[in-house]
Amino acid sequence: MSAARGGSPYRAATRAAINRVGVTVDADLAAHGANLTHGCEPTFVSAAGRDAAEWNHAALGPQKRAAGEALLLRLRARWAPHGLMLAGQGKHYPGEPLPRWALGLFWLTDGVPVWTDAGLNALGRPRQTTDADAAPRFAAALATALGLDTGRVIPAYEDPWQMVDAESRLPVDVDPHVSDLGAGAERARLARLLRRDVAAPAGYVLPLWAANSPNAGGRWRTRDWRLRRERLYTLPGDSALGYRLPLDSLASVNAAEGEENTALAIELRQGRLHVFLPPLARLDDYLALVAAIERTARQRAVAVVPEGVEPPPDERLVFLRVTPDPGVLEVNLHPAASWPELAERITTLYEEAAQVGLTAEKYQFDGRRVGTGGGCHMTFGGPTPRESPFVQRPDLLCSLVAYWQNHPSLSYLFAGLFIGPTSQAPRIDEAREDALYEVEIAFQHIARRQTESSAAQQIDALLAHLLVDVTGNAHRSEFCIDKLHSAANPGGCQGLLELRAFEMAPHADMSLVEALLVRAAAAMFWRKPYHADFVRWGTALHDRFMLPHFLAIDLDAVLADLKHAGYAFERAWFAPFFEFRCPSAGEFEGGGVRVTLRHALEPWPVLGDTGGTSRPVDSSLERFEIKATGMDPARHAVVCNGRRVSLEPTGAMGEFVAGVRFRAWHYEGARHPGIAVHAPLTFDIVETATGRSLGACEYHVTDRAGAPYAQRPTDARAAAARRAERFAVVNAAGRTIEFAQEPANPWLPLTLDLRYGQK
After folding, report:
1. Rounded to 5°, angle at Cα 329 from 327 and 333
2. Taking burial as the number of CB atoms within 10 A of a residue's CB, which of 130, 438, 657, 728 is the most buried?
3. Which burial class, exposed, middle or buried, applies to 130 when counting CB atoms under 10 A from its CB (0-12, 13-18, 19+)?
4. 757, 684, 746: which is closest to 543 by C-alpha?
5. Which helix (H) or strand (E) holds 753?
6. Cα separation of 248 and 259, whole Å?
7. How far is residue 728 CA from its own chain's centroid?
8. CA–CA separation, 463 vs 481, rounded Å?
9. Are 522 and 499 within 8 A, CB to CB?
10. What are the b/e assignments for 331-352, b being 16+ CB within 10 Å?
11. Residue among 425, 618, 420, 570 at smallest CA distance from 503
12. DSSP per residue over 489-506, as a string?
């Protein structure tokens, strides 16, 4: 970690202490032969336009692609000045008309350049040309550079019979009766399709594949395609030309032994010349094709956008990706092999993201600071799948799973707002009462096979059906092992463990503290495996550990274990996490008693199926932690909206704590829709003998007049103002409070749920 860090919540001395622990952990891992690599998936949002759909819930939007390209360009300059920037295709989700885009940066471990001149790559740059002849001239020049006949270049046309329906005169792949033409993206897509000139070529195609033996007559092969019609017509759509070639129909009339049905494509799109790379089996062939494209770009003095299929997997290849996700821009960071590498990469990423207008936090309507809403999942493995610590020592995974289950603070303190059994990173003991019993049996089998060569192969068979969410989804679980040793899944044998219960931290230094905590735990359990029974927390998981007081106690136990193992973690390093995750809402006093209100955690349950492509959640509830000091329970009570708060002694003299759960806002589709909003909340310190209020406060969810906020705060100052205006100490003079003596909630004894027992 560097000596200076703008806006860091840590002083220079603290950062130095954190760095020393990181170096110590590295030394221990190396001394014991644990080659632990560490990757992560940070997510960012725009610092401007916070209310835009693309920075809240939509995966795509007009600014996200531009921000992604700008960020990739800066990361190339920092990490891979001779790397290849490629516009590829990402995941395709149900309900979305097309796969999402994915921007990749690829370079070689030996430093050999993949793409030498950044100025010849048009990603991250404005329109380069409007010359309609740029594509055919480039295609001919590239064919020559590959040693192929320019006559094999084929013009490709939009199919007029498929572009436009004869009756409706609308594109067949955009049906206004099923498309959401009220959405800007759909309207823009329809307009693009209708503006196309079907008489002019959409682009140019060169059938291309690599020879099995490059020495036999050159590296590249091509051929004449026999066409069913007089022209080569594309498939309908608005994806890149290379994705819309009718390869299936061409294969039936162009079948020949030793020939592959792949092609390179060149098209002018939105003022930039795009060159589509086909799939190639060997990295050397792929690199040779990229080099030819760059030479042609230099010869033609035109920048191009390399797009299409990514390089084939190879141990020499390093890469990162920038991709869109609902509400955020995600960066899949390349794994680091050491603490200094990790610290440099995380710090650099945050710095460069800020330079292109991206940030790691945002504000809720009420002014509270929150994470981006996306994750910052951590991925651990080894230099190769075989060298992964989780393949070499399956007991390491067992230790981590068991330790996290014993310490709920590790599951909740670093997560986002969406927690609980239906979240994207549920604990193994949330909503699945039999899970712990079954995992215990699996751990017993893993322990018996620890010394066998087949241990790594067994771990997937034993845990693949247990480390899942309530629906059986292995990817949406706190400990995700779908890329550890799953031979049944493509890419499933990479030796990787993904920890998903980490949301984006607002500052790079905080992200590094999170990473160091996990690395230190792995080093500790590599030396000495963790053996402890699972704890049957029951309802205490969502009662006690939703409150920051008990999260802090649990985290203290974790830090004590790490200190005992030789890693000098300090409680103060985690103070910024508590303030970010569970900020103070205000405090008031009376009669020598002081009461502090602090935001607590609240699970968001997924609601029933509404027939859409996504499932809504009920986020209408919120929770406060109430902590009273200087209190005598025989003389004092804390009352919320006329109901006594079930305070529990903390063990410190005169200190008591409890939770208050309430409906913060109305949502017609929420559970128990007939229960009204409980806000504003009024809290009183009451003298029990007389019922006299000794001090009081009010907390408002919206502004003091009860009106909802129209938009999110524009900056930190506006957010702080909203937080301040919603809490007020009120004059309690002459005020008498009547309240009933209620029995404690048997399910949530620490929580006053204002819905429960409501008359």
Report:
1. 140
2. 657
3. exposed
4. 746
5. strand 751-753
6. 14
7. 36
8. 8
9. no
10. bbbbbbebbeebbbbbbbbbeb
11. 425
12. STT--S--EEE---BPPS
pLDDT at 636 > cutoff 90: yes
| DSSP assignment letter at 606 | B
Q: DSSP string spanning 192-245? A: HHHH--TTS-SEEEEE-EE-SSTTTT-SEE--PPPPSSSSEEPPSSSS-GGGS-
Burial class for 149, CB neighbours closer than 10 Å (0-12, 13-18, 19+): exposed
Residue that wins the pLDDT comparison between 298 and 215:
298
Residue 323: both structure tokens together: 């991709």
In angstroms, the CA 147 to CA 664 distance is 69
Q: What is the pLDDT of residue 433?
A: 77
3-state secondary structure 304-355: EEEEECCCCCCCCEEEEEEEEECCEEEEECCCECCHHHHHHHHHHHHHHHHH
Contact 597, 699 (CB under 8 A): yes
pLDDT surpasses 70 at 166: no
When comparing pLDDT for 554 and 129, which is higher?
554
Give the integer Cα–Cα distance in Å for 170 and 272.
27
CA distance 102 to 89: 5
Residue 578, Cβ neighbours under 10 Å: how many? 18
Distance CA 608, CA 62 (A): 32
Spatial contact of 233 and 184, defined as CB atoms under 8 Å apart: no
Q: How far is CA 431 from the centre of its chain?
A: 23
| Dist. CA 510–CA 467, nearest whole Å | 27
Percentage with pLDDT > 90 across the chain: 68
Give the C-alpha separation, 239 to 431, whole Å: 42
The candidate with the shortest Cα–Cα distance to 466, out of 446, 448, 451, 491, is 446
- Tokens representing 121 are 């790559």
Residue 4 confidence (pLDDT): 39
d(CA 108, CA 85): 13
Amino acid at 88: G
**Ranges of each domain in the chain:** 12-42+375-576, 583-753
> What six digits make up the tokens of 283?
């990295």
Residue 469, number of CB atoms within 10 A of its CB: 21
Instruction: Write down the pLDDT at residue 131.
Output: 84
Grouping H, G, I as helix, E, B as strand and the rest as coil, residue 576 is helix
